[in-house]
Amino acid sequence: MAGIPTAAVAATGLLGGYATARWTEKRPVGGVVLVAAGAVAVREWRRKAGDVTAGALGGAYVAAFAGSHPLARKIGAWPSVCAVAGGMALASWVAVDRRK
Fold it and tell me: What is the percent of the chain with per-residue pLDDT over 90, rounded to a whole number?
């Protein structure tokens, strides 16, 4: 796992969770993808940057997921998910990945 940037894990969780829910038509299955990637990301954030950073980024991940819903009403589902995934990737890169 050390070679995969946490930004990619976080963005993939948001994009993959939505895609899975959409294509399987089963929201809980998408939730499993979202939570699994989030758990991996939090573990890596904690390992690489400590508890405070992991907590802040974990909160941002949940906020990105929640915020994508009202944003989707304004700009569409896929653009919304892409926007929040990009924002989450940027936050993770700034806080953790660029330190390497």
Answer: 93
